Amino acid sequence: MKSKDLIRDFISLLYPRLCFACGNSLFKHEQVLCTHCLFDLPRTNFHLQPDNPLDKVFWGRVPVKKTAALFYFTKGGKVQHLVHQLKYKGRKEVGIYTGIILGAELKKTPSFDGIDLIIPVPLHPRKQKKRGYNQSEQFAIGLSESTGIEMDIKSFVRTIATETQTRKSRFARFENVKEIFKVTNPLALENKHLLLVDDVITTGSTLESCANILLQIPGVSISMASIAYAVG
Fold this sequence. Notes:
With about 230 residues, this protein is α/β, with parallel strands linked by helices. The chain folds into two domains: about 1-40, no CATH class; about 40-230, Rossmann fold, CATH 3.40.50. It is built from ten helices and seven strands.
């Protein structure tokens, strides 16, 4: 055994690598998720369904071409734990990893052809500085890596810091995010099919608010994707 392997094994004894969904130890070939969670976490497969339930969330609210979410999110479940690691524990790799997985799926899905740019829902600079990163941007990085589609984090920004959306009703969520985003470079987005991405879709209010602003740009069309869709 090489000295590097010995050192790596010793470090893993002191600081074991754990699955961010179930907490079990990871084997050498595993990253972020153990093999069991990788195949067992509840996938939505919305992007494969002609009668996509997530599309219906936005019917009558905002025109969206296609929507996708990797997992179902339930309170107390493994997916909630996974997202919690990304949002509150500094585990940026969770966003990148899940983005790579979903991106590989969308790349094989004809209905997601023709996307020009990936745009993550922006955080307010103050909040991003406090957290150290934007969790939706990490997800977008993974999507960009696996699809080859460029990510744009400069043309669309958040101008007002809002309070957390947790425990808010659908109407309260919408009121909380109304008119807090701004397009800084409309020419860069003109006539583009944008993939707008967030970490979790609950009521869809944040994405709806973003889409309504972006759709004011001539020729823009919107699709959406997230790590998870909250149910129940």
